[in-house]
């Protein structure tokens, strides 16, 4: 994972983004806009994956956001709002028994910081100690700093591929229901995304346990 994080940060730097990491490992690449007073537009996803999840899943959301900025720069576009690419850490279930770690911390969701402070793995290594060993020394003293205030982002766009041919083969029309449920979940748990959130579900022939 270390090499993957370094690779993504290199891609961000190559297109001129200002790169930073928070206390638990969420990675941000910021393309500053002409009006720094405005909340940024966020885009990104995660790059970790569960077994047999396919090649794309959340990876396409991170690389796609970087490539979108590259394309905008090619036509000399200059955004009014900053555009910030986000790579969420530990989105899939972790050694500590829960997932969506990075995004939940950013959203300050449901006592997440208390959960992280008390979490231990199967070998009784605490989350804070594991973070310290990985180089995130700030996590020990200032884990709450990864939380964002409401309205930190004006909007968020995520390209995400949930792979699995079963529903497609059965001709199940679930996209509207999934989108409505997603909207309710996001508005309740991720208020810092501001006005709207769009997540695109695309079909793929490779299996993903989300679709089983």
Walk me through the structure.
The chain is 36% helix and 17% strand. It is of the alpha/beta class. It has one domain (2-211): 3-Layer(aba) Sandwich (Aminopeptidase). Strands 1-2-4-3-5-6 form a six-stranded mixed β-sheet. α2 (59-74) links the parallel β3 and β4 (83-88). It is globular and about 50 Å long.
Q: State the share of residues found in helices, binned by percent.
A: 25-40%
Q: What would you say the CATH architecture is? A: 3-Layer(aba) Sandwich
* Structural class designation: alpha/beta
Which term fits the overall shape? globular
Instruction: Name the poorly predicted regions.
Output: 176-181, 192-212
Number of strands: 6
Our measurement of the CA-to-CA distance between the termini, rounded to an integer number of angstroms, reads 26 Å
